[in-house]
Design brief:
- This protein is 80% helix and 0% strand.
- By secondary structure, the protein is mostly helical.
- It has a single domain (6-226), classed as Ferritin, CATH 1.20.1260.10.
- 31% of the residues are buried.
Length: 227
Amino acid sequence: MAQIDPQQAIDFMTPVLRNSKAKLFVLNNFRVGEVRGARDLSAFVELIDDPGVKAKVIRHTADEGRHQYMLAKRMIELGGLGVLRPVAKEFDFLEQLSEAGRAAHPGRQVLEEKIAARTPIENRDLVGFAVGAHRIEKDALEFLHIVWQSCGVDLGTRRVIEEIAADEEYHVRYLSDLIRQFQDEGLDEEIRAQRTMVDRINEEIGATMDARMAEQFARLMAESAES
């Protein structure tokens, strides 16, 4: 997402997370993102040819599944079973990133064809995954820290966010290591091109998403005030 000043973000999110509807909206967006992550990783993890890379992506896949369960459990504690809902496309940041990435990077079709054919995936095929996932995980970690600091006395939610953030720190580290490994394997040009594209797409979509989220938070808080 777009770069933000951490203290300004905390000042903005603190009153948002005091509102039960807005808090559940935030947690549900996290949850749906983890569901997507687990699904997308599961689609190709068993096809990865490099055993060391596969082992790391297996752990990442497991983490995403565990996170969505933790978030769902906390949401149910806060609001009951009815709070587990799909996220509208206009608020689904990862879905929009995926669509934009597919349109901007024709080489992604190679990976998708290999997944469909169930053929081995080489490290060269994983450059887009490593660069894109690194940016997503890094941004998510920054926002998790902001949410953690904005939760106030909601210790249950803070514990969930803290545990997820610890895993996200590992994800950022291992993806950084993968990118360095791929550079050592002679894929530096592909990595640079992918970074340029990923950064551009994230900034473009992130700016729009931030504005939509702010409007949604204001709407949810106004609804609560009226009820």
